[in-house]
Structure formats: structure tokens, C-alpha cells
Specification:
Number of strands: 8
Shape: globular
CATH architecture: 3-Layer(aba) Sandwich
Order of helices and strands: EHEHEEHEEEHE
CATH class: Alpha Beta
Radius of gyration: 17 Å
CATH topology: Rossmann fold
Helix content: 25-40%
Structural class: alpha/beta
């Protein structure tokens, strides 16, 4: 007999859109516009969110902002111990990061290990002036001293729960859900 799982929707399409709009304005305010500003989405969910932020920021400022895609698989510290076989995806950063204000974008901030791997990977593409972090969900439980500069929603959760961000680009629906294994 399979385990029963229960889930709760904590954010819908409109909630995600409102969070991304607020984050776009916060990014522009903190960086005093979009001069030397670039977005880098962490594969996979962060890429879709970075694309949405690019549209919002470009719409607000009336200009274009560079967008890169970063795969961190080979930079992870758990690649040899992971129970899932990880297949590297494509990194696509076609511009120099030297002197740029980089905003890393991811869907969920949890232990901080993915972000640490992303920062290691970014350095292979140049020396940014600064690296900032934008996440849709911060669920806590940090194992490394990493915090987000821009957060859509703080979502305290237990270690036994999974926070899933579904995006229309990948799953056909925009929602954030918490899944808990039933005992």
C-alpha cells in the first residue's frame, strides 16, 4: 500500500505574479535602476522566474536587461552522495559578468547549498561587482550562512514537508504547494 500524501496550496497564479512584480521593483530600487544589472536564473525553476522578472523590469524601465541561465549540477557538494542521478543541463551566459550587479534567481531557498554552488559557478564567468539573490520562496532550514536579498514569501515549513513550485512553463499551472507525507 502506497503512502498517502496531503498537500496545501499556499500561493496561486495571482500571488506569484504579485510577488514577482514586488521583487522587480525592489531590485530596481536597490540597484538604482538597471545599469550594469544582469539576471541569472538557476536551472530549472529559477530560469522561468528570471525570464518573468526580465519582462517586468524591462517593462518598468523601458530597456533591455541581460539574462543568463546557470546549471549548478557539477558544482554541488552532494553530487556523489545524491540518491538521484543528476544530469547536467546547459549553462548559457553569453556576456561577461565582470563588474556587473548579478541577481541570481531561484524558486526555493532551503539549505543554501544550491546557492553556494551557483556562486562558485558564476565565478567561472567573471568577477561580478556584487551578487544578489532573489527567490520566490524562502522556507528556512539553512545549513550555510546564505540569505536572500529579495524574497517573494517566507514560508516556514518542517523538514518533513516538501515545498513545490509549479510554473506554467514546466507544469502547466502556477502554484506553490506544501506536500506532507501522511503517517
Amino acid at each position: 500500500m502506497g503512502e498517502k500524501k496531503s498537500f496545501k496550496t499556499v500561493m496561486d497564479r495571482d500571488g506569484i505574479d504579485r510577488c514577482l512584480t514586488r521583487i522587480a521593483y525592489e531590485i530596481l530600487e536597490k540597484n538604482k535602476g538597471m545599469d550594469d544589472l544582469v539576471l541569472v536564473g538557476i536551472r530549472t525553476g529559477g530560469v522561468f522566474l528570471a525570464e518573468r522578472l526580465k519582462k517586468k523590469i524591462s517593462g518598468i524601465e523601458g530597456g533591455d536587461i541581460s539574462l543568463g541561465i546557470l546549471d549548478v549540477t557539477l558544482y554541488r557538494d552532494d553530487i556523489s552522495t545524491s540518491y538521484k542521478k543528476q544530469h547536467p543541463g546547459k549553462t548559457d551566459i553569453t556576456f561577461s559578468l565582470d563588474g556587473k550587479k548579478v541577481v541570481l534567481v531561484d524558486d526555493v531557498l532551503f539549505t543554501g547549498r544550491t546557492i553556494r554552488a551557483a556562486m562558485d559557478a558564476l565565478i567561472d564567468f567573471g568577477r561580478p561587482k556584487m551578487i544578489q539573490l532573489a527567490v520566490l520562496i524562502d522556507r528556512g532550514h539553512r545549513e550555510l550562512p546564505i540569505r536572500a536579498d529579495f524574497v517573494g514569501k517566507n514560508l516556514p515549513s518542517s523538514l518533513w514537508e516538501a515545498v513545490t513550485v509549479n510554473l506554467v512553463e514546466k507544469n502547466g499551472i502556477d502554484e506553490v504547494i506544501i506536500v506532507e507525507d501522511a503517517k
